[in-house]
Amino acid sequence: MSVEFSFLLVQALSGLASASSLFIIASGLTLVFGVTRIVNFAHGSFYMLGAYVAVSIVPWLLQIERSPTLFFVGVLISACVVGVLGVVMEILLLRRIYKVPELFQLLATFGVVLMVQDAVLYFWGPLDIAGPRAPGLRHGVMILDQRFPAYELFLIAAGPVVLGLLWLLMHKTRFGILLRAATRDRDMVGALGVNQALLFTGTLFLGAFLAGLGGALQIPRVSASAQMDLSIITEAFVVTVIGGMGSIGGAFLAALLIGQLQAFGVLIFPKITLVLVFLLMALVLVVKPWGLLGRPESTAGHTALPEGIMQPRGFAAAEKLLLLLAVLAAASVPIFGDTYTIKVATEVLIFALAAFSLNFLVGNGGIVSFGHAAYFGLGAYASGLLVTKLGMPMEPALIAAPLAGGFFAALFGFFIVRLQGIYLAMLTLAFAQIAYAVCFQWVEVTGGDNGIVGVWPSTWAASRSAYHYIVLVAAMAGILALRHVIYAPFGASLRAARDSAQRAEAIGIDVRTHRWLGFTIAGAAAGLAGGLYAFSKGSIDPTLLGIPLSVDFLAMILLGGMQTVMGPVLGAAAFHSIKDIFMPLTDHWRFLLGASIIALVLIFPRGLGGAYAALRARFSGGAP
Amino acid sequence: MAETVLEVEGLRAGYGPAEILFGVSLRLARGEVAALMGRNGAGKSTTLKAIMGLVPPRAGRVRFAGRDIAGLAAFRIARLGLGYVPEDRRIFTDLTVAENLEVGRRSAEGRDPWTPERLFEVFPNLASMRHRRAAAMSGGEQQMLAIARTLMGNPEAVLLDEPSEGLAPVILELMAEAVLRMKREGIAVLLSEQNFDFAAAVADRAYVIERGEIRYEGSMAALDADPALRAQQLAL
Question: Please, what is the Cα angle at A200 between A197 and A205, to 5 degrees?
Answer without folding.
Answer: 125
